[in-house]
Amino acid sequence: MKIKRIITTIISAALIMGSLSGCGQAYEIACPAVTAEPTKKVEVTPMPNVKIDDLVKSQVLSKAEYPEQAKYPEQNSENYWNEYEAWIKNFNTDREVIYKEEMEHFFNKLAPLMNELNAGENVVYSPMNLWFALSLLAETTAGNTKNQILSVLGTDADNLVATANNMWINNYRDDGLVTSTLGNSIWLRNDTTYVKETVEKLARDYYASSFAGDMGSKEYSAELQKWLNENTGNLLQNEASQVEFKNDVAFALASTIYFKAPWREEFNKFRTEKKTFHGASSDKEIDFLNRKDEGVLYYGKGFTAYRKPFAEQGGGMWFILPDEGTTPEKMISEGKYTKLLFGDTIDLQYFRGDINLSVPKFDVSYMTDVKDVFSEMGITDVVIPGKADFNPIIGKNSDIALSEALHAARVKIDEEGVEAAAFTVMMMKNTAIMQTKEVDFVLDRPFVFIVTNRDNVPTFVGTVNNPE
Predict the structure, then answer these.
(1) How far apart are CA 450 and CA 223, in angstroms?
(2) Which of 9, 223, 357, 460 could join 421 in a cystine, given CB atoms 3.0 to 4.6 angstroms apart?
(3) Do the beta carbons of residue 263 and residue 291 sit within 8 Å?
(4) What's the pTM?
(5) CA distance 169 to 99
């Protein structure tokens, strides 16, 4: 796996591809335009039926509209305090946080399996992106297929939407200081019918834009790649360029997350200096960021950890250094650090005071197929034609199953802050369609980093074994 692929703008893109046949309460692709409003209310504007011959290679059916937020005031603004007061209203101190338990459940299942993928190499992924991708998948499935997904997500059918909405609301931020944006979309075939209510539900409850096009065409793939790049701050352009629609794709669900935040206290560029990083494969001279911080250093069984905060309620970044003789992979497999991420520090010793922090300046990325990871977590039926149940979106079709689940992420840090992005692409194809076109989907020693939001929930996780 290459080293430049995961974190700062966060983009999670989950694509569910396969080929569809119509059923009751279905509609042709070009019929409705569904728009997700910030109020979670959606208005469906009917469009006239369009013949297949009239459809273009790619078209936008609807685009989600995201809530606007008051901007963080400029330091020299004449109305600074009025603008600050308007900005602070973005944060509701009495807000409900009902998704942490579900995310902790999901993370504890996911982390050990992702840890096993490439021992000794850099690995980066976004738990939040993968959770959202699977929540979209759950909304398009039924029966045991859906129940397996819900079990992994740590919720049930009655609470899925409420949990997803709460997670979205508590993580969305675009105020000019911190950017934390999530995007969802559904990609449909222009020659197939779909269940209208499900498309509308994704728009209403998940802010999902909708598109239609000719599966297998360059134009439609280019539209998808454009959407991915726009929603990930162009951090994953190389990875996005590898995502293409094959002609046997039935539909796709895409979920993205982009993150960018400055440190509360930046590193001084004049203190950046070359030091030796003792990597898993070799030693290397690289730039280290250095700063004296006042904070808390935690000592656990097998690790030492420090959380450096981002500016103005933006969350923070954990740096977790395994003890000498312990690899990041072993530390993660033991799982003794996970409670720390969710705010439980009862069993930990700690030092509070000045900390001379020295961390390598890095830019790491990673892309892999997580289909087998999903299966090991308990999501098995969705990969088996005849067992996978996509009745809520396409009606009964025994030939559709998950064939690929690509996840890519990138994270980079420098003196000023952090930028990260991730996407998940789940390919659901119809095995009954003949394929006519082939497309390739192509601290001074190893440590772990975890980007968390203001609720201390991990949004990006990575292992740096050989920084570049």
Answers:
(1) 32
(2) 9
(3) no
(4) 0.81
(5) 11
- Partnered with residue 463 across adjacent β-strands are 123, 448
Helix (H, G, I), strand (E, B) or coil at 323: coil
Nearest alpha carbon to residue 163 among 108, 208, 205: 205
Query: Rounded to the nearest 10 degrees, what angle do helices 127-139 and 100-115 cross at?
Result: 110
3-state secondary structure of 459: strand
Q: Which helix (H) or strand (E) holds 130?
A: helix 127-139
Q: Are 331 and 337 in contact (CB under 8 A)?
A: yes
Say what angle helices 196-206 and 127-139 make with each other, to 10 degrees.
150
CA atoms of 143 and 124, how far apart (whole Å): 32
pLDDT (tens digit, 9 = 90+) per residue, 409-428?
A: 999 999 999 999 999 988 78
Helix (H) or strand (E) holding 105: helix 100-115
- Report strand pairing: 208-213 vs 179-189: parallel
Amino acid (one-letter) located at 448: V
- Single out the residue of 308, 331, 310, 335 nearest to residue 321, CA to CA: 331
Four-residue CA torsion sign, 284, 290, 292, 294: negative
Q: Could you give the angle at which helices 160-171 and 196-206 cross, rounded to 10 degrees? A: 40
Per-residue pLDDT tens digits for 81-112: 888 888 888 776 566 778 889 999 999 999 99
